[in-house]
# Entry
Amino acid sequence: MIGKAARVASSLSALSSVLLTAAGGSAEGRAATPSIFAPVSTPAFAIRELAMFVLGITGVIFVVVAGLGVYVLVRFRRRRGDDRTEPPQVYGSRQIELAWTVVPLLIVAVLFLVTARYIYGVEGHRSREGALEVTVIGHQWWWEIRYPTLGIVTANELHVPVSDAARPTPTFLTVQSADVAHSFWIPQLAGKMDAIPNKTNRLWIEPLQPGTYVGQCAEYCGIQHAGMLLTAVVHSQDDFARWAAAQQTPARNDGDVQRGRTLFVSLACSSCHTVQGTPGNGVFGPDLTHLMSRSTLGAGVMPNSPENLRRWLDNPTALKPGALMPAMKLSPEELNDLTAYLLTLR
Amino acid sequence: MNSVRSTTAMAGPGPESASRGRAGIIGLIVAESSLFAVFVVAYLFYIGKSLTGPYPRDVLELPFFNTVCLLSSSLTVALAIRALGRGQARRSGQWFLLTLGLGAVFLVGTAREWYRLIVGHGLTISTNLFGSTFYALIGLHASHVSLGIVVLALLSVFGFTGALRREDVPRAELAAWYWHFVDGVWIVVFTVVYVVGR
Amino acid sequence: MKMDAMSVLVETVAPGREAARPRPWLAVLHDWVVTVDHKRLGILYVVTGLGFLVVGGLEASMMRLQLAWSGLHVVPPETFNRLFTMHGTTMVFLVGIPLVFGFGNYLVPLMIGARDLAFPRLNAFGFWILLFGALLLHFSVVGGDGLYGAGSAPAIGWFAYAPLTERAFSPGNATDYWNLALLVTGFGTIATAINLLATILTMRGPGMTLGRMPIFVWEILTISAMTLLILPPLSAAQIMLLLDRFLGAHFFDTQAGGSAIAWQHFFWFFGHPEVYILVLPGFGIASEIIPVFSRKVIFGYVTLVAASAGIGLVGMGTWAHHMFAVGMGSPLNSAFAASTMLVGVPTGVKIFNWLATLYGGRIRFQTPMLFCTAFLYLFLCAGLTGIHLAVVPFDWQLTDSYFVVAHFHFTLIGGLVFLVFAGLYYWFPKATGRMLSERLGRWHFWLFTIGFNLTFLTMHIPGLLGMPRRIYTYPADRGWEVWNLVTTLGVPLQILGVAVFVVNVVVSLRRGAPAGNDPWDAWTLEWATSSPPPPYNFAIVPTVSSRRPLWDLKHPGDPDGLHE
# Structure
């Protein structure tokens, strides 16, 4: 019964996702509207399936009850010419009231059983051979993303391999927080999972389609809660291997940007930021080893371009009010040098 | 046919105002129970979760004497009400005084325990989770004891000056119920903090 | 019912209020400040609630202005965060609670044949402490940095999750304003709940058994009992937060092993039943108005009472449905899914009972009934989106998104504000002796209803498209802009609707048609005394022998007692 409902649901959801992803579209490289009805990953598909089933039931309930309501309100309105006598007074009916208590109870029972099945099915999904492990740590106001088995540390962008039926490669996320409560949410990949300090949560995704999918923090976490965006890039298996290999290399140390590199190491930068291969090993801010491989700055606040990078270094809070990175009060030359150095960190 | 009631009917004593008062004090006790329950839940939840010491088993001593004083004060306050019921205002004043005296002894005992913990063991509310939950729960209870002592002092004075009459039993009883409640809370607190939590 | 007593009652003339010589305004003000009369305190509560409804509405309007399109900068980010914090806190604690307890205060003694509440001075204390707390909270706006950027108003969200509220993450005093103001108003609310409980249980008039009380009174009884059980836990959590912030305790200090989840459990143990406390009196108002305007007795009185008790009881076991994404584990997730779905059943039963009351009636669509009609539709939607949220995996997408925001505005505005408006149009004549204008009432109704649906029906969509809540702006490429714009367009209509209502009240106070004792041809005891009632409510407290004493009087050949 669930399967049949799900097939009806799929066609309904295809229709609705067309309607609901109106402004988005899935142009090459551009992320689609993160509609929960446009899943690309197994748990998100499961949620949509369940959602359609529930929407179907509540839709029927709405039509029936609202229809009854409209009928009653129209049919029994007072009309001109109605005499002023009172209509027959009906105090109740034990059978009817029992019926309209029992029927909803039965509906609730069915709904609960179906729901419980999906709860255990999604939450109970166990990690398996070949799954990728990623640790996501929420900070005020950026996402730290670590690949413990690959030795990769990055920020705000989750890169994962696509999973296919022949060789499933789901990704299991360990979700934590370094400060206050956050919530990791990329609707097309999975339901959200809160990042709670002093607690470790687990979330899994299994993207079945390469592409770029967006999300953001979904638990109010302070002034820049709105500025904690997420991007998930789902690669083909080969592309992911290439990405991972590039991320595993230590930072470039180009000769012509040594002034900038010296600034990075000698100023307070290195006490908050890590660049592999330099003394910089701070953990308060994002790892910058491959800063230029990421598409945005400031956790999605603006595109990652040379001009934006320079502006950010000059005055972060002008671009992201409340950001915890201080303005380092650099002279224009220092800014140029530092920017030039960071631009080499591909 | 009812007789016309005056608008001040609710102020004076009478069977109706007695039940009103009882409903009120029971409502208060329910609300206070709910308040204490959350602090108890927090205490239980955080047992064993302190990251650093001192730990309960290292520093807590059973407040046996304190407990005996407080619980016997329930007896004395009941005797105060009984005396008032017999029209013995002065006798009831004495029992109220003894009750508040026992409560005061309890508070002094609590203060001494806190002194020992703070100065002797360095346990404050900010030391660790045990400190936070301990002082909050015991402190909440002690504040309620203090409030009760104020009320008992008033009743004691009224008893001695003869302002209390037999008809005041329903209202004095409300204060006694509050005092019984405070004692009941102590039984729970004692069990949770000094028995379960150690 | 004694005919003599009744005829004495219906002929009672309103004493003194409309006497020829106007009293000096200072004397009038003094009377209102020192009053312990439940009717005056009820009016003070309601006026306070409506006043803060305007304040909260302005806060919401500013937010909707900023969110109408992506990247707008109507206010700085922190100001926006203060706005949604103050908006939520104001609406729940300074609008919902005062309105609900205000109606309860005014109506309960009149409906049960009592002369006042059990503890009139405690009643006054409850009101003034609420007002003080409200002013304390709003002082934060001008404290600190002053008016610019909304000063020191809290920016922690109305549910103030830890550890964001700890000193490390919320320096300054903004959070303390939130904490202390609500501790203070909480005491007042508990006091009023004790008062109403004692009144209903011990001061009912002759013949007024529990089984003959109006449904509205049953709702007030239920919510008063609930208040005693669930408001102290909030106070407890707030005391713990106070200890954390001022004495260095670690209740919610995750660095010291404290639990952020503990705050959530404590808060929502209060927070969820709180919204039933806000909505059940609304149901009570509907249960008074729908019968009178359909000319039929309420269908299934006992079922309705049982349903209220069911909602109250089961509702206290649903709180962690706000925490489905927190990682509680499948057993707890399932348990709270079950309780949340279960609580939908008595709610649905009530809707059926109301429809059955309307069935076979002769429905008059005057303004009170218009608002009740809208409520039926709105609460049906609200209940069904509530079912969506109870389906835990679906909730993993919907929670903390604009879908939830839409849902709870449907429940709270649809289930409380609409019914408050209905109740105001219904009982304004009783409280003031004058009718509100029907014509202006219709304008109010249509403007507000259309505006409300434009805003909040639309609002579900950005939630389904992945828009989280509490964000001061959003990126341009998510496909959310059009829906946010439409949502914002509903705001001016709602503002206009409320403005029309205010005009209606002001005009009708002076020039409204005289109401008489019983303008709606109703059946409960409050209509048996003058409009406005004398300070002592009833010259002679009537003896009742059924649930509809005035029906019995008007239909002596077919009294309710034969059928109940």
In short: The CA atoms of residues 282 and 416 of chain C lie 5 Å apart. Residues 3-8+39-562 of chain C form a domain with the Cytochrome C Oxidase; Chain A fold (CATH 1.20.210.10).
